[in-house]
Amino acid sequence: MTFTITLSHDFSTIHRIRDEWTALQDSSDADSIYLTWQWVDLWWKHFGNDKELWLLEAREDNDNRLIGLAPLKCFRFNPKYGLSWRQLQFIGASSACEHLDFIVERGREAEVIPAFVAYILAETSRWDVLSLSRLLESSTTLEILETTEHDWKEGESRVAPYIPLPKTWDDFFMTLSKNRRKKQRRYRRRLDEEYPDNWSFDYVTDPAELDSTIDRLITLHQAKWEALGEVGAFGEAEVAAFHREVIRLFHEQGWLRLFRLVVDTRIVAVLYTYQYRGRRYDFASGIDYDMYDLIPGHLLTELAIANAIDEGQQEYDFLWGDEEYKYSWGAQDRYNLTRLVVTNPRITIQEKAVDVLRNTKRFLKKRIMSRDVN
After folding, report:
1. What CATH class does 162-317 carry?
2. Fewer CB under 10 Å: which end of the chain, C or N?
3. From CA 334, how far away is CA 347, in angstroms rounded?
4. How far is residue 37's CA from residue 343's CA, in Å, rounded to a whole number?
């Protein structure tokens, strides 16, 4: 069957085709929550002002049925060194989103994805770099791109550890190291001894409690990262506003799991997670460091994983970053990959020059350190 690709720059299109978008994603292997129309719609509402929407639709010619979507944005990319360029990439790829991709009806990928790529490459006068990033290493898209006659370059690789979840908590707990099991029992025992019948764990179900819990999450999270001189996940006002709206919407959808550990009527830890199509996403946490001796972070993670198993989730996704604590829970590495097409030769020359500069700085730094030691 034949199909036609169209391009829309109109933000209202996302909301107009929302039911078709959901049906298409349900029939595809693009199962990331960051590809839902709800996430994309809110992302564009908060961050799309200085960007151009590129929403490609593939529709069957005979019945106009939607069989593919490419949710892209074009914007001015400003590298750390050198001149800026026009970059075309998946919506959300420059922020904390993982597992991005084309959304294509299962079984039609080999037809639709090359057609999307051909359409995009026919518009090279409108962009300088095509960056297909945050693609899961298991994505069919990566295989298909290799079959196209284009000079795809490898870009950034990001590790996103995850835990495949068994059917029961006992099965999972026994996969942990003996040391981890011993520590978790000790943490729980200490909490019971110091606060008998005076601690609780739950997630927010009452919408009236969302705002106060979000406030506590942001306060605790930012206190840690700002003390380290970092921005933190909610350090920018527009990002915090975005997540407040995401949390409310995901609560309505039944996707939100905003966990709280309460000790002596005080929220000592908050964990911001959500779930979609069998995957629990661990996005951000906030820990009260006045109560750090109770190790509330590890306790909250244990309880959140147990909840994911109880609810039948198939995996617990820690998202981007190789922090040590993730592996203490038995997390396995999984990578999100990037494929690039660069059409502007100036950018290639510029990036090579930047690489030379970086390597020279590393060499000189090493020489200076070696001289100081000797």
Report:
1. alpha beta
2. C
3. 30
4. 30
In the block, tokens 């835990």 appear at: 163
Bridge-based pairing of strands 266-276 and 153-154 is unpaired
d(CA 64, CA 139): 26
58-70 residue pLDDT tens: 999 999 999 999 9
Amino acid present at 137: E
CATH topology of domain 3-159+335-343: Aminopeptidase (3.40.630)
Residue-wise pLDDT for 190-219, tens only, equals 999 999 889 999 999 999 999 999 999 999
Distance CA 216, CA 235 (A): 14
Q: Give the whole-angstrom CA distance, residue 11 versus residue 9.
A: 6
Sign of CA dihedral 64, 66, 67, 72: positive
For 363, the enclosing helix (H) or strand (E) is helix 345-373
Q: Where are the domains of the chain?
A: 3-159+335-343, 162-317, 345-374
The residues that bridge with 284 in the sheet, in sequence order, are: 272
